[in-house]
Structure formats: structure tokens, C-alpha cells
Amino acid sequence: MAAANPAIDHDAHDDHDHKPQGFLHRWLFTTNHKDIGTLYLVFSLLMFFVGGTMAMIIRAELFKPGMQLVQPEFFNEMTSMHALIMIFGAVMPAFVGLGNWMIPLMIGAPDMALPRMNNWSFWILPFAFFLLISEIWMPGGGPQGGWTMYPPLSLEGGTNVAFMIFAVHLMGISSIMGAINIIATILNMRAPGMDLLKMPVFVWSWLITAFLLIAVMPVLAGAVTMLLTDKFFGTSFFNAAGGGDPVMFQHIFWFFGHPEVYIMILPAFGIVSEIIPTFSRKPIFGYQAMVYAIASIAFLSFIVWAHHMFSVGMPLGGELYFMYATMLIAIPTGVKVFNWVSTMWGGSMTFETPMLFAIAFVILFTIGGFSGVMCAIVPADFQYQDTYFVVAHFHYVLVTGAVFAIMASTYYWLPKWCGNMYSERWGKIHFWSSVISVNVLFFPQHFLGLAGMPRRIPDYNVAFADFNMISSIGGFWFGASQLIFVGVVIHAVYFSKNRATTQVWEGAHGLEWTVPSPAPHHTFTVPPVIRDDALAHGDVTH
Amino acid sequence: MNAGNRNLGVLKTAGVVVACAFLFGFAMVPLYRVVCEHVLGIKLAPGAVDRSRVAGLVEDAGRTVRVQFVTGVNSKLPWSFTPELSSVEVHPGKLTEVWFDATNNGGEAIVGNAVPSIAPSEASAFFNKTECFCFTEQVLQAGESRRMPVRFYVDPQLPRAVRELTLSYTFYANEAATVRLSAEQHTKTGSPPPAAG
Q1: Is residue B117 pLDDT above 70, yes or no?
Q2: Which CATH class is domain A31-534?
Q3: Which of A41, A299, A453, B187 could form a disulfide with A448 if both were Cys (CB 3.0 to 4.6 A apart)?
């Protein structure tokens, strides 16, 4: 099967096998991009369930009005930790893991550019989350002021806040090192002939995401450092009594925070731009437009931050500027959505599980995008601020956006990783169960928010009871559905007898589909010869 | 240049970007003040205006602005603090005096500082105080009450669209000054000072 390509012949006899022996040597000291990618993905799945358990506690408490199960302090801990863990522990490491696994395979590189730093950037994460999660068992508990850590509230608790701040520092260091590694890999390690504008869209999306990461993670580190010195060293950056200004924290935080939300969605755009062409059996429509759209979104993300804080009392001119700049983002995002639809248009489509998740992504992410445009409208936003409407909005873009894309990519690339096909039947069951339950879970929250239900509050008016119960049922159902996902992955890795071919999917193009399945421990030790017709997007005449 | 050197180059460049981004986070602190005060015209400093400006004021009797007063006390300060009037109607350009009452309900002498804030923020540059208890530290002995004046005028240049302003004060405990005060009192009476905190 590999005989057509001399580079792969070489890999095949290189395969047996330079894997380090022994568990510690294999995983703790690894510098192999595939092993580190696997570590990231497994860690992310673990954190997804830790954060998911917290979400289940939140939905259980909100199942009925009145205080049911937990103390309000614990409820606030759950909302704050759920967000921190899902953002920094589940979504971001999953994307870094996918980048680690796939970027070298997609650009014909033998490994990441800085493999030892790669090891370090992963192994910081377990320590960061140990610091963060261990707070739950300490006297005084974990952070209760929300993941945004607004002072003065976030500093009103005990000294445990230092654990959260150092955890955030560690997560930031890990992300920055991961990002630098990805930039160096993409800029320096491409195989001859893999020009920048021939790279797969996923690689492009990660290159731009990595630039966002190195530009804004240090700003978050600065903001939490100021919180630390305000709390413990008597400074008054945000302390009004000492002449500081708490609103300034919000500006600094969201200068990081808005690019951060694109850090969590741009790689998802890349994934979907790989999957839809494969199952439509057509090259992606408007490859260059897709790349420029991602770059435009990344640029705009730096100049719209204050739309998260319209209600702080900004001057009218500021509100108008941030409103119009925010609405501008809908244009490049719209370009992407139309291009995905145009790629499907007239294609010979089939609906395997990755494609189902990708299509659900396009539809449901767009719904989340629409509610985002609603939130951008200043006079309307005063009604939405801090209500469940915002919760519904960002869960549509993060769960049915980022998380669905990660699941799509797992189904799409899993056969390449482990060499076995997953169970299509159970994949589809997982998809339909997830896509129905996630809408039962989050759609009613739009109406709850419009009716005035505030977020981050453990109790609510009885008027909101019915929709909260529906939402909670959807929540438990969605949570349970993810156990199917774990089952499908474990089955595919350890028990499936259905071997994957080299190309895996009939319509798949790109270098990652020219190496055997499972991908050998070392690939592309000799740079591959790139045939233009083997490239994913097929647009080589630009 | 080989790949190792090129990777090191990317690492160095990215390291510089990261360092600049970290410093930029801190640079936003002074930038925030500059943008607020010089670009958006929001006055952050609570200081008094020059008295000479008051002399040349012309009262705009044809226009009335309502000024509301809101008071708050930080949870660490056992004081009560209220305005004597909840709002007044003033003509722009007219110097007006209002009174606030503070009482120390605690058992110790405490130093407090009041931090003012004006809403809407666009009006902050047009609200001027010639005298305010917020300019200095306020010392209240245990159980002591005090009437405190604020003299202000609204600049006649205030944009026409603003018909109502809110002046809000929050009193905070000045912990460092309170510890100092307590130490001084105990030196005078000869008794040992209590443990700080």
C-alpha cells in the first residue's frame, strides 16, 4: 500500500521500532510529537469529565427552584471551576494535542521543532490543575468569583486565591511554550514544496492561533500578577480605596479574554475545513478566502474587547465603536460559513460521524454567532448582560462549536492514530444523542436569559422552573452521552478488529493520509515528495 | 542556516514578543489613565479645583441640573454614612453646599478615606468640588459623629444632554493610618498598643 511513495517505504522499515521501552520512559520523558499529542488529548478528556461533573452539579442544583443540594458557596465554586477547567484544561489542551499530532503529519515534518520544550509544556499542565482543583478541599474552598476573577469580589475570599493565580500562571506558560513550538514547526519544518499557501487550513488556523496565544497569554499573566500583588503586597492596581480602579481589571482581562475566545474557535474552524471537503469529495471552496478570513478574525479580536463590559458606564463613543467593530467580525465569519456550505454544494456527500459533527458545528455555531451579534448591540446588551442569554450564547459557540469540532476531529483522525476504525453505529448514536440533548440543554437558556434569569446564582424565581428543569434534563442526557464517546474511543483503540487503510476515508487528501495507519512512531524522517494533487485543498494555481 | 538555529531564532523572537506582551499588560495601567483623562474626558483624580476659577463663574439660571447623592461604606468599616439630602437641583455655575453625616459605630478610633465617583462618566470633567471631606483622611473616635460639607459647582459647559448627575461616595478604612493612630494614642496614655490588624 505504501510502495507508491519512497518516503513511506522508508518509514515502514523505520517503524520497528524506536519507541522507548517502559511506561515512564515512553510517556514522562517523551519528545515524540505523537506521544505528546496523545498525552494532551487524554488529559483533555479527563478534564472534560472533571469539568463536566461540575456542570452536572450545577444543573442538579438548578433542577428545581430553591436551594436543593449544595451550599451557595460551593455552587459558586462549581461555576468558577467549571469554566476554568473547561477552557484551560479541556478545550485548549485538546487543540494543542491535535496540533501536536497532526501538524507535523500535515506539513511533512519528522517532529515538532522544539521537542523537549514540547514535553515540558505538557507536563506543566497536570501540576497546574492539581493546584487549582486541590483548592476545593482546602479550608476556604476554591475560587468563587467566576472564571473572570473580577476584583474586588475575587479577592474577598481567603488566601487560596494564590493557588488559582499560580495555576493560571502555569497554564499560561504551558500555552505560550506550546504556541512557540507550533510557530517554529510551521515556519521551519515544512517539507520542500509545502508553501505557506499550500498548507492545510487546519495548519493555518493553528499558526494564527499560536500568534494570538503569545500575544495575549502574557497579558493574562500580568493581570493575575496584579491581583496577586493587590491581595498580598499592598498595591492598589484595582483597589479603589488606594486610588486604583476595578474597571481597569476588566479592560486588561478582556484584552486577553476576547482573543482567548478565538483561540478556542479558530482551530475548530480549521478542523471543520478539513472534514467537510473530505466527505463532500470536493476541495474546500475558496481556500485563500478561508485563510484570510481567519487572519481577519484574529486581527479584529484585539480591538473589540470592551463589548464584554458595555454596562460598566463607558462613554457613548466607546460603546458605539466597540459595537460596530464587533459586528464587523460577522463578515469574515460569514465568509467561512458560506464557504463551508459552498464546499458541500454539489458534492458527493456521505454522512459518517465526523461529517455529522462538522455539519452540526456549522449550523449550531452559526446560531451561537447570531446570538453573539445580538449581544454586540449595545442597547440590547444591557438586557442580556449577566443573564442566561449570555450563558446560552457562549455554550453554543463553545460546546456545539469548539467541543463538537474536537469530537469531529477525534472520529476523523482516530483511525490514523490507532490504526482501527471506530464503530460507525455507536459513533452515530453518540452524535444524535449529543446533538439532540445539547439543544435541549442550551436552547431554553436563551429564553430564561431574556426573561431575566441571572447567571451564577444557585436559586431562582419559580417563574423560571419549567425551562430550568428541561435544561437540566438535557444536561444530564448530554453528560451521559459523552460516556458513549469514551466507550467508542476505547473500543476503537483496544478492541476493534476493523483495520483502517492508509487513506482511511475515500475522499481524504493531504500528507497525513499517505502514512500507514496507525501512523508509525517516526514519520517523514525523509521529507516526502509532494504531489500537488495529493494536497487537501486542491487549489495549487493561486 | 540549519534548522536548529532557525528554531532558536523563532524561540528568541517569540520570547521577545511574550516579554513585550507581559509588559504591555502593565503598561495598560498608565495608558488607561491617559485614555480616560485625555481622550475620553473622564476625570479620575478627585482633587479640588483652583479657587480662582470659581470667581469668574457665571450662573446659568436658565438651566437646572439635578445632582443625586449616593453613599456606601466598605464592609470592613463599622461606620454609618448618609447624605442629608438625597438630591438637589442646581443651576450650572452656582456654588452649592451639601452636608454628609458619618458616625463611627465601632469601639475604636478609625481613619477612613472617602472615594468619590461621578455618573455618567462623561459629566465627571464638569463636576467640580472646592471643598470635600474626600480630599483628606477622616478620623472618627469610637461613637463620634461628624457633619461634613461638600462645596461644588457644575460647569456651565456641561453637555446639554446631561440633566442628572450622581455623586457617589464609598468610605474605606485606611488601615495603615488607623494602626499609626492607635500607636500614637497608646504612646500618649502609656498603655501598650494592641496587636496590629
Answers
A1: yes
A2: mainly alpha
A3: A453
